[in-house]
Amino acid sequence: MRPLIAPSVLASDFANLQSEVEMLNKSQADWLHIDIMDGRFVPNISFGFPVMESIKKHAQKPMDVHLMIVEPELYIERFREAGAEVISVHIEACNHLHRTIQQIKATGAKAGVAVNPHTSVRLLEDIIADLDLVCLMSVNPGFGGQKFIENTYRKTETLKNLIIQHNSQALIEIDGGVNQQNAPKLVESGADVLVAGSFVFSAADPITTIADLKNLSK
């Protein structure tokens, strides 16, 4: 089974955002990955509701929203209203993770948990059955263009086994440094969704690059 491809809009040309989204509509991309950063949970600020709503006006693919923010529970409903169909919160940012997951599901969105490179996926054991998605950070969150962390392969295999053991339907998403070299091994390790930012938007032909990612990952 080929993975879902979710280009990260953070790496797009913001001066031509509409045309970038229309390009993704024409491509084999499955989701649009939207990174929301608040300058507190991560040392960077991206964009908020107005830009996300503008993307939604043109997007023909589901919006996969990754909240790299503190107190995400304060904004879940608002992100859903802005067009999010998948909402992932960081385990490191949630004091009451189960409650926040149920809050996401109550909006009708799919609920995900993102996990930083230093965080063990075993911490998800008591909640894995409730999740639709686990986003494994394969770089440190906050900035695009970072080098892929090799330990991600082992971590993906561990998470896949945890999902199977608990009869969970959660998809495994890999976010950071994904390219044509590591994509096949990531899928072999158990990944279901590949987030690609710089690799796609810096390519001479992003549409072909997205198609190649799917073909490389069979």
UniProtKB/TrEMBL annotation:
<dbReference type="InterPro" id="IPR011060">
    <property type="entry name" value="RibuloseP-bd_barrel"/>
</dbReference>
<feature type="binding site">
    <location>
        <begin position="175"/>
        <end position="177"/>
    </location>
    <ligand>
        <name>substrate</name>
    </ligand>
</feature>
<dbReference type="InterPro" id="IPR013785">
    <property type="entry name" value="Aldolase_TIM"/>
</dbReference>
<comment type="function">
    <text>Catalyzes the reversible epimerization of D-ribulose 5-phosphate to D-xylulose 5-phosphate.</text>
</comment>
<feature type="binding site">
    <location>
        <position position="66"/>
    </location>
    <ligand>
        <name>substrate</name>
    </ligand>
</feature>
<dbReference type="GO" id="GO:0004750">
    <property type="term" value="F:D-ribulose-phosphate 3-epimerase activity"/>
</dbReference>
<dbReference type="InterPro" id="IPR000056">
    <property type="entry name" value="Ribul_P_3_epim-like"/>
</dbReference>
<keyword id="KW-0119">Carbohydrate metabolism</keyword>
<dbReference type="GO" id="GO:0005737">
    <property type="term" value="C:cytoplasm"/>
</dbReference>
<feature type="binding site">
    <location>
        <position position="177"/>
    </location>
    <ligand>
        <name>substrate</name>
    </ligand>
</feature>
<dbReference type="Pfam" id="PF00834">
    <property type="entry name" value="Ribul_P_3_epim"/>
</dbReference>
<feature type="binding site">
    <location>
        <position position="8"/>
    </location>
    <ligand>
        <name>substrate</name>
    </ligand>
</feature>
<feature type="active site" description="Proton donor">
    <location>
        <position position="175"/>
    </location>
</feature>
<keyword id="KW-0413">Isomerase</keyword>
<comment type="pathway">
    <text>Carbohydrate degradation.</text>
</comment>
<keyword id="KW-0479">Metal-binding</keyword>
<feature type="binding site">
    <location>
        <position position="33"/>
    </location>
    <ligand>
        <name>a divalent metal cation</name>
    </ligand>
</feature>
<feature type="binding site">
    <location>
        <position position="35"/>
    </location>
    <ligand>
        <name>a divalent metal cation</name>
    </ligand>
</feature>
<feature type="active site" description="Proton acceptor">
    <location>
        <position position="35"/>
    </location>
</feature>
<dbReference type="GO" id="GO:0006098">
    <property type="term" value="P:pentose-phosphate shunt"/>
</dbReference>
<dbReference type="GO" id="GO:0019323">
    <property type="term" value="P:pentose catabolic process"/>
</dbReference>
<feature type="binding site">
    <location>
        <begin position="142"/>
        <end position="145"/>
    </location>
    <ligand>
        <name>substrate</name>
    </ligand>
</feature>
<dbReference type="InterPro" id="IPR026019">
    <property type="entry name" value="Ribul_P_3_epim"/>
</dbReference>
<keyword id="KW-0170">Cobalt</keyword>
<protein>
    <recommendedName>
        <fullName>Ribulose-phosphate 3-epimerase</fullName>
        <ecNumber>5.1.3.1</ecNumber>
    </recommendedName>
</protein>
<keyword id="KW-0464">Manganese</keyword>
<feature type="binding site">
    <location>
        <position position="175"/>
    </location>
    <ligand>
        <name>a divalent metal cation</name>
    </ligand>
</feature>
<feature type="binding site">
    <location>
        <begin position="197"/>
        <end position="198"/>
    </location>
    <ligand>
        <name>substrate</name>
    </ligand>
</feature>
<keyword id="KW-0862">Zinc</keyword>
<dbReference type="GO" id="GO:0046872">
    <property type="term" value="F:metal ion binding"/>
</dbReference>
<feature type="binding site">
    <location>
        <position position="66"/>
    </location>
    <ligand>
        <name>a divalent metal cation</name>
    </ligand>
</feature>
<comment type="similarity">
    <text>Belongs to the ribulose-phosphate 3-epimerase family.</text>
</comment>
